[in-house]
Design brief:
Radius of gyration: 32 Å
Low-confidence stretches: 523-527
Number of helices: 39
Helix content: 25-40%
Shape: globular
Amino acid sequence: MFNKNNTWTYSPTDLVTFMRSPFEFWMNRAVILNPDLVQLKDPEDEALKALQTKGYEHEDEVLANLMQSDGKRVIDIDALKTKDRRAETIKAMREGYDVIYQAHLALDPFAGKADFLIKVDAPSELGDFSYEVWDSKLAFSVKPYFIIQLCCYAQMVAQVQGVLPEYLGVILGDKTEEKVRTSDYYYYYLALKDKFLKFNKVQSQFDLKAIPDPFDSKEHGAWAGYAQQLLEERDHLSLIANINRSQIKKLSAAGITTCTSLRAHEGAVSGMNPEILTRLREQASLQFQSKGLDKPVFKVLSSNPAGLASLPMPSVGDVFFDIEGYPLIEGGLEYLWGCTYFENGKRLFKDFWAHDRDQERELFIDFIAWIFERWTRFPDLHIYHYATYEITACKKLSQRFGVCEHEVDELLRHQVFVDLYKVVKAGLMVGEPRYSIKNIEHLYRAKRDTEVKSGGDSIIVYGAWYESWLAGHASADWTQDEVLKNIRDYNKDDCDSTQELFAWLTDLKIEHKIETIELVKDELNEDEPTEKQQNKIENKRQRTELKQRLLEQALESELSDEQKRLSAHMAHSLDFHERELKPMWWNKFERLGYPSVEDIERDVACIAHCKRTKTEPFKATSKARLLSYEYQFSIEQDYKPAQNSYYLYQEYDDNNFPVKLNLDAENSDFARGIVTLKAKSDWLAPTEVHLIPDELVSPEPIPAALQRVVVAFDKGELVDTAIMDFLTRSIPRIKGHVRGEPLVTATDGKARLAQIIKVVENLDHSVLTIQGPPGTGKTYTASHIIATLVKKGKRIGISSNSHKAIKNLLLEVADTCRSSRIKAHFICTRDDGDDERLEKLGVEIRTNAQIADACGEYRALVVGTTAWGFAREDVAGQFDYLFVDEAGQVSVANLIAMSASATNLVLMGDQMQLGQPSQGTHPEDSGLSILDYFLGHQPTVEPEMGVFLDTTYRMHSAVNQFISEAVYEGKLKSASENDLQTLQTPSTVNEVLARQTAGIVFCPIEHEGNTQKSEEEAKAIQKLVKDLCKGSLTLRDGVARAVTLDDMLFVAPYNAQVALLQSLLGNKAKVGSVDKFQGQQAPIVFFSLCASDANEISRGMEFLYNLNRINVAISRAQILAIVVGNPTLFCPSINSVEQMKLVNLVSRLGTYADDKKPN
């Protein structure tokens, strides 16, 4: 950046710096005006300087390669002897050079030099060609800041050529070329640029007293030392260990803005748990007492069973474990696994290295083999580590590569891994600003003296070595390479420190006479296996052999790539359900071992602080053997839907098993914070409990059915079957239809439906996808197809993940058949007792075990059940068609298991709405949903592959335009009658709403510190509701009427906001989460985003910004969608390209709402 005549010009790099750290950018700008500030800057990083030099060398190599390309006209703008290089750049663009190097571009207030403009065959104002912006980078994957720079240059290029480049490109350090679609990131860039310009307008005067708060930036670049100095001078609350932004907000609201004022505070703080307040106050006091001391003051928390009492007894076989990872390549690389251990009383160190994916796989196998051999010799050993990184890596690699899964499962279920961070956090309070091992070791060892000082240093140092190694200029042998030796020394020191920490904690435990609490590790039966268990063991053996055989086939050179892919996919599918169960086991034991109730509070699967109500224990029914105990919890905490049973945190029975109680669902009301648990009459019910869900659900008989299909695949028996067409992503086989031609060509609704029915009728042992975006009549279409089929005596199965979806379609089919006088028999396997239509439409309730008998009794038959029914062996071959509804939520593994039940498969749903709920991590594409797999992650099905229901009969075109362009590639149309739907609000009531008769409105509400609910947003919505109810609306019938509360849906991502809105709007208001309202609609939809800061939110950025969830929320609206949220959510700080793409949709939503505002 530079300042000329009091006018600032910025480069795209300045924008990137601002994105990373507003504080760093401000200081960079301030030092231009006041050069004396440079003394506050950190010393220059030599490693970063070396990387910059290598970057220039890489750029020169790329240019040399381009200039050697045959026939390409290349121009180097910097090589021209001219002062106006921007004019020369524009001239070169108009003359159509193939490559323009160092292109000088500008669009006030930005200017800079793009590495390369590459000519492409896409029309523009320049002619039948245009330019894409490309950059050369040393990295080996695309980074967020690359894309921001490219978008900035793309906007400059668009000013010259009249169109925005469709793609942006990066030439990476290994010479690979990566292209990204501009529109996937451009709206985030625009939001960032707008934020940048506003920041510079506000921060126009550089008085150091007006410097931005360093706390508001996640990092501080070359000004990190000065930032820390400022925080300390201000006695900032963020200096307190383990405090979060939400807590800082609550404390600040109570007038507590410094560590000193917190230490002095007595009494309660509104909205803050008293235990947490006490802990923060004590932490602040300990840190104050520790100032200036070499060894911090600490306090032993002897009463917490998750603390020192949970520390196992020492074993001579114990291992002390630490991993060094490199996150700057896609998926990360866990490149060094170090272990300190003892042999014959001598402390030794063992290291495992990997520098690419294949080596990483072998490293992991070798590590697990070494651990298991040692575990065999020392059955009482434990593997100690500090924080969750190591255990997460083991889980990730076992599932990424599909190896050592059983071994990792055994280690985890027997609790061989011990996280000393949890022990420290639960068992001690330490006067340190962080509880990292580097801080805690001040208690038990001298200062470190390694060349590499921190994990951040190791990433930079390894990154430089890695690029050199790829270029062939470095050795992978640590004994021959100084860089690797230094990293190894650092890793060894971490492992040694972990061992010394364990020894110190053990001594502390003895000193304070804390007894070890030996908890039962699992409800495992150690007796002789029963016949059922022996069968399970034998099935596991057969499955393992089959998997191994298929994986070996996948490596055979004579097979085609597709055959290899299929063999590997089927092999990995065999263990799908086992991999899904593993995280449930892992989560269970992790939660039972949480250091404190605060961890329970943060875990959305758990429910904290459930307190006994005054209701006496009671029997739910006259025949009940157990009593029901009623508890009340705060609905302000974020939680997931109810489970059938729960473990009680830190409550154990006489055998030291965690107490587990079943839920009394009939007498629970989670929306009001009432949970009722069933227990024996002699149970001593605690006055307060914290609930950990038991998420385990047996998948049988689905895995057995899946295995039978895989065996048939191995024998070559699936040729010309529906499931084989699905697995190979083949064009459907349809009698009388030319393969490759569009399946449906009619545009009229009735003619189109007739064509779809004909396609399904003529399906020939094949698979058909019917994609139904919001409001396109998927259920209507399916019911008419099935009615036509049963009229011809076909036997139909209807399946989905949920009984609700199954019942919804089944009832629609029964109703259609009754209206059309089509005789058929209907069976459902679940009656929740809440739908009178089952009996009215003659739907019979049977169990899954009775389905096969029904198939013998009836020909024109429709059966609705889940995969647990259609996977049964006695149902194989019984159905002509299996319709899978909401197929975007059903796993491929479940479809394979169900496929044997039917001749043809019809997959209905929309992968762009709510997706598959998955717990596990699965190799390759074995964990995808049906539609994600079949469509290859494409947003719409191609016309020769399936049917895209392309007309919505719900959304006004002003709502649909955003949904269509942002989600469905512009292919979703709005029926013309939809635009009869309008809203009229008097201008005297609300000027904005008065001008907005239909479409999407963004209502900006600024707030701070909110994570799961926002009173500010809720009150704004309450006012908007009052305003809207003074107006009128018109629906498709053309009749105007008054707006009422019943015309509105209120959607929020978190239960706390749902509860708040319900309390403000009343019980008649239809308030709920996105999941609740899928399939529903209303003239007006409110979508409250709740959160103040995307980086502090519950469930992570991937939840709030999920495209599928936003699609569902907005597309409920027939006339108007009102998005209420903090404008900062359009442009949060992001850590990855994937996050940028997620946020881009919300950024685009804001841009769309602004563009559509009437003048």
